[in-house]
Amino acid sequence: MGFKPVPEVGSFGEIARHVLDTSHALTGLLLAGVDNLATPEFRRMVKEHTRPLPEKLDAATLAAELRSSLEERLAELARQPAEFFSGMITRFDGQQVTRLEMIQLVKEHELTHRQQLFLFLRMKGVVPVTTRRRQAKK
Questions:
Q1: Considering the domain boundaries, does residue 55 fall inside one?
Q2: Which domain holds residue 129?
Q3: Mean pLDDT of 15-32
């Protein structure tokens, strides 16, 4: 969890926690009806919508929290009417997008960090589980 390829980047665990906190908070803000993220209160609002967890988590707990957060948010988003997703919001950079586009941004953010974590695993000689699954099907 503490692996860093260079001192200037976050560790594996720090990046995974960042994904958990950011994804849960941004989707939570959308579900709470917040339609303007370009506000000086943005960081405070994000903190209000993160999961109340201890600062340090072991690998198993962090993995479980990532799964739990995803399941929770998927269920909450699935209950929303179509109009929810077409509603307009202002992103933190001032750009106007639909809620669906904002959810796509959250997913792209997760995938960017997933690629980073997969690289960290490869640097440590670990083959990511998705690759192992694909190789097992051959």
A1: yes
A2: 12-137
A3: 97
Q: What pLDDT, on the 0 to 100 scale, is given for residue 63?
A: 95
CATH number at residue 70: 1.20.120.450
As for how many domains the chain has, the answer is 1
Give the chain as a 3 state SS string: CCCCCCCCCCCHHHHHHHHHHHHHHHHHHHHCCCCECCCCCHHHHHHHCCCCCCCCCCHHHHHHHHHHHHHHHHHHHHCCCHHHHHCEEECCCCCEEEHHHHHHHHHHHHHHHHHHHHHHHHHCCCCCHHHHHHHHHC
- 131 vs 82, more confident: 82
Residues 6+ apart with CB under 8 A from 77: 27, 31, 103
In a domain, 97, yes or no: yes
Q: pTM to 2 decimals? A: 0.90
Residue-wise pLDDT tens digits, 44-81:
999 999 999 999 999 999 999 999 999 999 999 999 99
Report yes or no: 27 and 78 within 8 Å, Cβ to Cβ: no
Residue 3 located in a structural domain: no
CA distance 72 to 3: 29
